[in-house]
């Protein structure tokens, strides 16, 4: 079923960054359970129906297998650098007008925020767009087609600070990423609190 917040005026592409080694977590955090689903499944769910093309760049076979079952193309690799994962993801973005980089360990990013990011890019393709909250900039980050060649050639990259615009998230929790087991526990407690508040009739943004 297509996400009701989707926008298809332009062919948008999405690269899910899923290559972290999970050193601080102690294991492959992307397959860790969060609220009944693997951590990465929350990010893939948020972008479902919004993008003409979705790929996950990963070094983990179990993550690649899961992504395939979720309808997301997986690109396996064993390259050492983050710039390698960017380059590999960009190889799949041919024909797209934008490429949005989503962090697989950022599970509360919302479909509404991603859709707003795409609408911003459609209205103003001259800018790079990223998500932020109350002055703090974070991910996801959307790059228009004019930046593709630079992304494919990383490193080095040019600075484009004057061409970056920020789309406000609904909550600081959308920018929260999981690095440790403690982070996962904090997030699980927050989600439970939001769920309990919703049952109680309060309006709590997760």
Main features:
single chain, 206 residues, two-stranded antiparallel sheet, 6 helices, 9 strands, globular, disordered N terminus
Average pLDDT confidence is: 90
The shape, in one word, is: globular
- The quaternary structure here is single chain
* Unreliable spans: 1-8, 201-205
Strand order of the largest sheet: 5-4-1-6-8-7-9
Cα-to-Cα separation, first versus last residue: 23 Å
Q: Strand-residue fraction?
A: 15-25%
Largest sheet: 7 strands, mixed
Any idea what the radius of gyration is? 17 Å
Describe the structure.
This protein is of the alpha/beta class and 206 residues long. It is built from 6 helices and 9 strands, in the order βββαβαβαβαββαβα. It has a 7-stranded mixed sheet with strand order 5-4-1-6-8-7-9, with helices on both faces. It has a two-stranded antiparallel sheet with strand order 2-3. The longest helix has 19 residues. The protein is globular.
Compact summary:
The chain has 206 residues and is of the alpha/beta class.
Question: How is this fold's topology laid out?
Answer:
Blueprint: E1 12-18, E2 33-34, E3 37-38, H1 39-46, E4 53-58, H2 61-69, E5 73-76, H3 82-90, E6 98-103, H4 111-123, E7 128-133, E8 136-144, H5 148-152, E9 164-168, H6 181-199
Parallel strand pairs: 1-4, 1-6, 4-5, 7-9
Antiparallel strand pairs: 2-3, 6-8, 7-8
């Amino acid at each position: 079923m297509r996400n009701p917040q989707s926008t298809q005026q332009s062919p948008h592409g999405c690269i899910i960054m899923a290559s972290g080694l999970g050193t601080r977590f102690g294991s492959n955090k992307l397959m860790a359970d969060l609220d009944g689903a693997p951590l990465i499944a929350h990010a893939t769910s948020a972008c479902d129906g919004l993008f003409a093309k979705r790929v996950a760049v990963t070094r983990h076979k179990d993550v690649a297998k899961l992504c395939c079952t979720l309808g997301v193309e997986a690109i396996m690799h064993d390259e050492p650098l983050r710039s390698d994962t960017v380059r590999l993801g960009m190889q799949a973005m041919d024909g797209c007008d934008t490429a949005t980089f989503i962090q697989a360990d950022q599970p509360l990013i919302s479909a509404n925020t991603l859709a707003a990011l795409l609408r911003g890019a459609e209205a103003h393709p001259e800018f790079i767009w990223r998500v932020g909250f109350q002055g703090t900039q974070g991910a996801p980050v959307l790059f228009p087609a004019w930046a593709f060649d630079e992304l494919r050639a990383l490193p080095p990259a040019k600075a484009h600070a004057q061409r970056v615009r920020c789309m406000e998230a609904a909550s600081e929790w959308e920018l929260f990423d999981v690095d440790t087991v403690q982070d996962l526990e904090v997030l699980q407690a927050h989600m439970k609190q939001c769920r309990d508040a919703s049952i109680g009739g309060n309006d709590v943004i997760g």
